């Protein structure tokens, strides 16, 4: 188990390094000279050159990347050229908002979607199963930003039961009420998605030989479902949720913009807009790490649940 | 009597004494729904398993042995439908029993050893968890149940059972898993064990060991066993009675010695013909007989074996053979040639 754990950790670090390098190259390939955009069209060439030097943009790309990783190892994500603030500070100020949003979204989606899928599989072709099926397909089809806008309209603008924008001024209740709408918008399509996946894999597992064997010993159906089938049926769901964090990150970007919530998503949008490379890169490093951490965590949970995976 | 109604009922292994058999399957017919039509997988199957006896079921792959076992314990695929007949077990008709009552029988009065040991155990639960689970009806405490599980694993020859109990199925070889399945089936001390090829994953020496073990445990516990096998040698070694199946029908049944010494059905004869002298030890797999198994979707008229029978004659074409005694009343075959007073027909066919 520990060997598996360390191996997974090293793999995760390697993935982060490769991904960040690729993203660095891609971001710098975006057309538009950051110095011109920042300083405006009427800046003198000398001023532009000075800014480029300050941002380290005059060096060849490989040197830039090596320098970036060197700084990264020292825990330095660079400096925001506009405000002169530490990028690390700017980014980590926003990270908790995004992480909370994503965790809440996937959390409530799993809490409802998995039991719903399990129930649909056991009570196949009942009304609950059919309604879940239809709702799942329709919610999966609706993009989360559309969900966000409608949630905002209905609950905040028309019904006025929930706050429309921001993340609250602190305090648990305030934070929670501000979380409801965005978490609903980001997570709702996941409820149906997870329900579908769990239903399908549950049906598959219930048809497997070992379930037949458990039945041949007259084990109570409840025990068969919860101890024999469900632990196997949720395995693909966990991997899926780990990978899904990437989608949730992009869903969070929309939700943060629509609900004017602080967070990595909103930060990235602003930073890309103004070609604020150090901040963009800071966000990229953090989101990549979040993503890799989520998939690694999913693998570890899988290994905990599935003895066969531990040895792999 | 079956003789009086020649077309109904397969040959039944009649119980020796007055005591009613533990299990009696009567005229059981079962279809599978499939895109190509209904597969008539079991047709008019009748057999009996007397108390404390081992009854062997033999026949080529696909003849319906597993389907028969699954039908008895009522764990059939969703597309299966019992279209006729009854299964009487300890005085109750299983086909008419409620699902709740059926579940109460499973793992208490009857247990099953499944054909494929690689997939029969739950991959995410330890052997211990699974072996304790199946004892859930026992009033004993966990310590006692664990002790019983270890003892049973030891009996079936799992080395170091106390430690191995904590392992997961994938940490055992196929042969080991098969023994664990056997241990589990016997652990609940059932009246009837449905053993679906319990020795296929074992090599020859292990097979002999396991067969001897099964025989010993069966004698000790006094349970009955329906033993499905491909191996004629194993059946000869282990079983009291034999039921020979072909393409979903019982073609011959009777005491093991009568069947092996004086097979009444041309199919059984063909199975044994390959090497009658060595059947007892050497024939591990069913010999292959030329020709193809008939299509079970549109079952041909007349005798089911006619397309491969060496002694086929005009009656076989349209007339379903009746069930006739061979060596004695308990040994019967479903063949026109065994019809009393028709011994001449066989000679004619040969000529
Ligand atoms: N779920 C199913 N749907 C349709 N046909 C089936 C189904 N299960 C079994 N059959 C068919 O029923 C027949 C009997 O199958 P069964 O598994 O009982 O044979 P078997 O005698 O146990 O063979 P083997 O020795 O290979 O285990 C076969 O023709 C098979 O194709
Ligand atoms: Mg079979």
TrEMBL record, chain B:
Q: Which Pfam family is one of those matched by this entry? A: ABC_tran
Q: How does it sit in the membrane?
A: Peripheral membrane protein
**Which InterPro entries does the record associate with it?**
AAA+_ATPase (IPR003593), ABC_Ni/Peptide_Import (IPR050388), ABC_transporter-like_ATP-bd (IPR003439), ABC_transporter-like_CS (IPR017871), Oligopep_ABC_C (IPR013563), P-loop_NTPase (IPR027417)
In which broad location class does this protein mainly occur, judging by the first location in its UniProt entry?
Answer: membrane
Keyword Cell membrane in annotation:
yes
Per UniProt, subcellular location reads as: Cell inner membrane
Q: Where is the ABC transporter domain?
A: 25-272
**Location of region: Disordered:** 1-20
PROSITE patterns in UniProt:
ABC_TRANSPORTER_1, ABC_TRANSPORTER_2
Q: Which CDD domains match?
A: ABC_NikE_OppD_transporters
What does the record give under GO molecular function? ATP binding
Keywords, sorted A to Z: ATP-binding, Cell membrane, Membrane, Nucleotide-binding, Transport
- Family, as annotated: Belongs to the ABC transporter superfamily.
Q: Which PANTHER family match?
A: DIPEPTIDE TRANSPORT ATP-BINDING PROTEIN DPPD, OLIGOPEPTIDE TRANSPORT ATP-BINDING PROTEIN APPD
Q: What is this protein called?
A: Peptide ABC transporter ATP-binding protein
Q: Which source organism?
A: Rhodovibrio sodomensis
